[in-house]
Design goal:
With about 230 residues, this protein is an alpha/beta fold.
Length: about 230
């Protein structure tokens, strides 16, 4: 059965590939990104999708933008909170950890998930299988702490925690929520030396989203379905 899917951060990387694969599988995808007029690859994909991909503008850090986008989107079965940023990779002494970069990370990786869920959860209530998927990371696992990118790690830990909280809050509405580690992926963020291709990650993630339901709500797992430690 075809799903109606919203994917944030759909203009590049894993978001773009999930959009591609979901549409190819016959799903209807609303592909959200900050600057749709500059999303050339996404727009080309939408043009060739036979109407299965609709591109919309949405800045997840700005609640007014999310609210406005939600007002123009219909019913959904799956919301994928994929938009994220990694803007400083070093430790405490990395000069890239500026107040501006920290604020951008917090607002994108945490508040962006919150605002997206807040304004699109209602769109899921008519679905037979309503789900919210939060793209987190193993870097947010407290049991896998490291010395690199501490702000990014903290934001992903918070996003996972937020997913667990939402799983409890939305349970009475039948909405399942999961957090997912996409793997170390060959994207602009992951780098060319990463372990898996974006195609492998997207395929695995979409399979995990399809398996998400009330019995597994609150899960934190990898794109291959392996349990992740919190």
């Amino acid at each position: 059965m075809a799903d109606r899917i919203l994917i944030t951060g759909a203009n590049r990387g894993i978001g773009l590939e999930m959009t591609r694969q979901a549409a190819a599988a016959g799903h209807q995808v609303t592909a959200a990104c900050r600057k749709p007029d500059k999303a050339d690859e996404l727009n080309a994909l939408a043009a060739d999708s036979g109407g299965r991909i609709t591109v919309i503008g949405m800045e997840v850090r700005n609640e007014d933008s999310v609210r406005a986008a939600a007002a123009h989107v219909g019913g959904l079965d799956l919301v994928v909170c994929n938009a994220g940023t990694l803007n400083a990779r070093g430790g405490l002494t990395d000069p890239s950890h500026t107040p501006e970069n920290i604020a951008e990370s917090l607002m994108t990786n945490i508040a962006g998930v919150f605002f997206t869920a807040r304004h699109f959860a209602g769109h899921l209530k008519g679905s037979a299988a309503p789900r919210i998927a939060v793209i987190s990371s193993q870097m947010g696992s407290s049991e896998r702490a490291g010395t690199t990118a501490p702000i990014y790690r903290a934001t992903k830990a918070a996003a996972t925690n937020l997913a667990r909280s939402m799983a409890l809050e939305l349970a009475d509405d039948g909405i399942a929520v999961g957090a997912y580690h996409p793997g170390w992926v060959q994207t602009d963020m992951g780098g060319a030396e990463a372990a898996i291709t974006v195609e492998e990650s997207a395929e695995g993630l979409l399979q995990r989203f399809a398996a998400l339901g009330p019995a597994t709500s609150g899960v934190f797992e990898t794109y291959q379905g392996e349990e992740m430690p919190f």
